[in-house]
Design brief:
Blueprint lengths: L10 H17 L14 E5 L13 H5 L4 E5 L17 H20 L12 E10 L2 E10 L4 E8 L6 E3 L23 E2 L13 E4 L4 E7 L5 E14 L2 E15 L7 E4 L7 H4 L1 H4 L2 E5 L8 E5 L12 E4 L10 E3 L1 E6 L2 E2 L4 H5 L3 E3 L6 E3 L1 H14 L4 E3 L8 E3 L5 E5 L1 E5 L3 E4 L6 E5 L2 E4 L1 E3 L7 E3 L1 H4 L3 E5 L4 E5 L5
Parallel strand pairs: 2-3, 5-12, 6-11, 19-29, 20-28
Antiparallel strand pairs: 1-23, 2-4, 2-14, 3-4, 3-14, 4-5, 4-10, 6-12, 7-10, 8-9, 9-10, 10-11, 13-14, 13-30, 15-31, 16-19, 17-18, 17-24, 21-22, 22-27, 24-25, 26-27, 30-31
């Protein structure tokens, strides 16, 4: 490899600097400002900066937007739920639960059973990473009832029904806030069996003796919630209050939801928050998911002020699939590694399709696409020590003893000729002891849908213009 040798006027300085420069190249150490092969873009980072930060860094965007809902990670230092010191799941548990969710989503699309029974106004909710169905997801705090009770819910673009745990519990898991008691609210009302909400495309039943609508939601890992379908006053912000919001009042809730009071459904179906608030927010919302370790982000409803830099948002069409009308489908057209487009046919992505999902942790790619990504990434990381794979990950590196590393940049191409860069923490996933893994996984079959997961969405402004039929991406969304 040809080296560009700097010239120094002083011969002693020149010789000394030349010697260091050559030795660094022979050892494979990164040199800031050095010209890499084909001028490929890399992230040059301090290894210590890759370790999770033990303290909270609040989003500056959230501070600027009084009405924004704060988003944080369930087990991160920004989460108020973490005050209970709930034990975080192990990496193996996280990935096992994540795979169960992926299997569930893909199964729903196979059997055509999408029945997982929020103008110029805006409301912004802070989003926090949490645990939904066993995986580290993101949570927001909102108000329900009169007088208002603050509840922390996992938000999920792959679900329609919003539900919370309610008294009197038949079976309830442990949560941070007191369990909601409908008898304490002046505005709670059960939905009758003949009401329109009870006839929506849900797994609903009816108690004939009391003429009360019953809902049931069963998740892929065996978790479930069953209870009464009801209406209540929903408070997103002091100025954004919705009477008669339909939700599930869960009396029998079992599974891996621990900590959060329930789930906020942001899918495209009639029961979702997006649909129920469409008259005010025009089926428009956006979020920025913070990094899993230490920061906060935002969840925003409405077009006005929903993004940090609306002019910088690039849009791709939102697609629909009759087998999964509640899901948000997008078209991936390619992947770049270090600025180089991988040799993957577009049909590899387009034939099964891809959904964007806030509840899936790790992006799942079609086998051919993942193999191409992994192969090129390994080629460009040959100077680093590979180590044994961990859980879903098969491309892992031990950075022990290194001060800095150079990581190839990765970006996704979507229909509409847009390119979306992936944040460093969406490229390398920390698994402990100076070990980091390529943060992607391959699907088990080429025929199943890809999923653009929340780790790869971190720090991006992700804009859902559902009525306009498009999805937007922008960089620097949490700041």
């Amino acid at each position: 490899m040809a080296l560009s040798i700097p010239f120094f006027a002083n011969s002693h300085v020149s010789f000394f600097c030349l010697l260091i420069f050559v030795l660094m190249h022979l050892k494979g150490a990164p040199v800031y400002g050095a010209k890499r092969e084909h001028d490929k873009p890399y992230h040059v980072v301090n290894v210590k900066s890759l370790d999770p930060i033990p303290y909270c860094i609040e989003s500056t965007k959230n501070q600027r937007k009084r009405e924004s809902l704060k988003v944080v990670q369930r087990y991160g230092p920004c989460s108020r739920m973490n005050e209970a010191r709930t034990s975080a799941p192990t990496l193996a548990e996280i990935m096992s639960h994540d795979q169960a969710r992926v299997d569930s989503l893909q199964h729903r699309l196979r059997v055509n059973s999408d029945r997982n029974s929020l103008d110029d106004s805006k409301a912004t909710l802070p989003a926090k990473p949490g645990q939904s169905i066993g995986s580290p997801n993101y949570v927001v705090t909102l108000g329900l009832g009169t007088p208002k009770k603050d509840l922390t819910l996992t938000f999920d673009t792959g679900s329609d029904v919003t539900w919370i745990q309610c008294q009197p519990c038949i079976s309830c898991y442990e949560q941070q806030e007191p369990i909601f008691n409908p008898s304490d609210s002046q505005t709670y009302k059960n939905i009758s069996c003949t009401a329109p909400q009870c006839s929506q495309d849900l797994k609903l039943g009816c108690t004939r003796s009391t003429n009360t609508c019953v809902y049931a939601v069963v998740y892929g890992d065996g978790s479930f919630t069953i209870g009464l379908y009801a209406t209540e006053t929903l408070t997103l912000t002091p100025s954004d209050v919705f009477p008669s919001f339909a939700f599930g009042c869960g009396l029998n809730n079992t599974g891996l939801f621990h900590g959060a009071a329930g789930l906020l459904g942001l899918g495209r179906g009639p029961p979702s928050l997006v649909s129920q608030t469409a008259s005010k927010y025009e089926s428009y919302f956006s979020y920025c998911l913070p990094t899993l370790s230490s920061s906060s982000g935002t969840l925003v409803f409405g077009k006005d002020g929903g993004t940090t830099n609306s002019a910088g948002i690039k849009y791709t069409p939102l697609l629909t699939n009759s087998n999964g009308p509640s899901f948000y489908f997008i078209e991936v057209t390619g992947i770049k590694v270090a600025g180089e487009l991988l040799p993957i046919s577009q049909s590899v992505f387009s034939s099964p399709g891809t959904i964007i999902d806030s509840g899936t942790v790790i992006t799942r790619l079609q086998p051919e696409a993942y193999n191409a990504l992994r192969t090129r990434f390994r080629q460009l990381m040959m100077n680093y020590t590979m180590t044994q794979g961990v859980s879903l990950f098969d491309t892992c590196y031990d950075f022990s003893g290194r001060d800095t590393v150079e990581v190839p940049a990765i970006s996704f191409l979507f229909a509409g000729s847009i390119e979306v860069p992936i944040d460093l923490e969406g490229i390398l996933y920390y698994v402990g002891s100076s070990t980091f893994c390529l943060a992607f996984a391959g699907n088990r079959a080429a025929s199943v849908e890809g999923i653009f997961g929340n780790v790869q969405q971190q720090t991006l402004d992700v804009v859902y213009d559902v009525a306009g039929g498009k999805l937007g991406f922008g960089t620097g969304g949490c700041s």
